[in-house]
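User:
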Amino acid sequence: MKLNCLNPALTGDSLITAIQESKQKRNPIAEGFIYEHTRTMLTADPGLGKSTISTQMAIELAAGLPLFGHFRVPQPVKVFYAQTERPLIEILERIDEIGKIYPIIKENLAITGETQKLDLLKPMHVEILIEYIKKSCPGVRICFFDPIYALVSGGLSSDIPASLFTRAMSRIQSELNATFWYTHHTTKPQHSSNGEVIFKTDPFYGSQWLKAHVTGSLHLKATDTGVSLERKKDNYRLLPNYVKLDYDQETGLCSINSKDIPSIEKIRNYINAMGAAEKEFCFNDIEAATQLCSRTIREALLHNTISDLLIVVNTIRRKKIYKKKPS
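Assistant: Predicted structure:
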């Protein structure tokens, strides 16, 4: 590498311009769930449905359909999906089943198992993957890597391969200017001396390099009616804290029951509805419409994805009167 391969450091006017540009709102890929330039990791025990959920997401994003029937997708996006282990036929069969319910927008989907031939610990393979994705899916907006540990020889349990992997993925993302979605497995259950299972707060498998690399992570757990997604990390305050997904045995699809919509989504939906009606509203109006506690609403109003939607048009006896910002 030569010095002219590196961009100049930010200083003077270029620094001020970069700061101003960084304040711009991240564009949503799925509002309230996936945003540009993020790296989100979904972890779960084997067999809980990481791949099933990820495949459904890829199809919905490519078609511009609401994610899980709820999170609005502003426009269809180009999706690259790398199945990094197991035969490719598995995801093709899954897509075929989903295709009986949802349209498969073939122009927006690129599915491959060829990444199983690569080892991202090798710099040459990193460059090959960049060119492969550019050629297979021009204009890609989101890349799925399912699962990530199969992209490197020896796995991600120790620091050296994990640090090399995260560096490789950061470079790939920079070259593609795309959002990344990872699936990953959890650690094996550990037991105390009396035989009881030891529950970890965040039981992902691997080095802390990996946890530091992702901008957000979600842990998948089984429920009585399907699965739940619990937020474990969220650098940019973009992810919902908890999402419960019901599984439909007949269609094989997961969806959010309206009563299980996260609080912040209820508030966002109310604000959007008031914006569409061109009406002003106050804190008490939000409370009455959403049936959420005042503390939850106060915290949500400080969340950047909510505060960015609002304009304070008046203050009456210390009560703020809001309206939605024009789109």
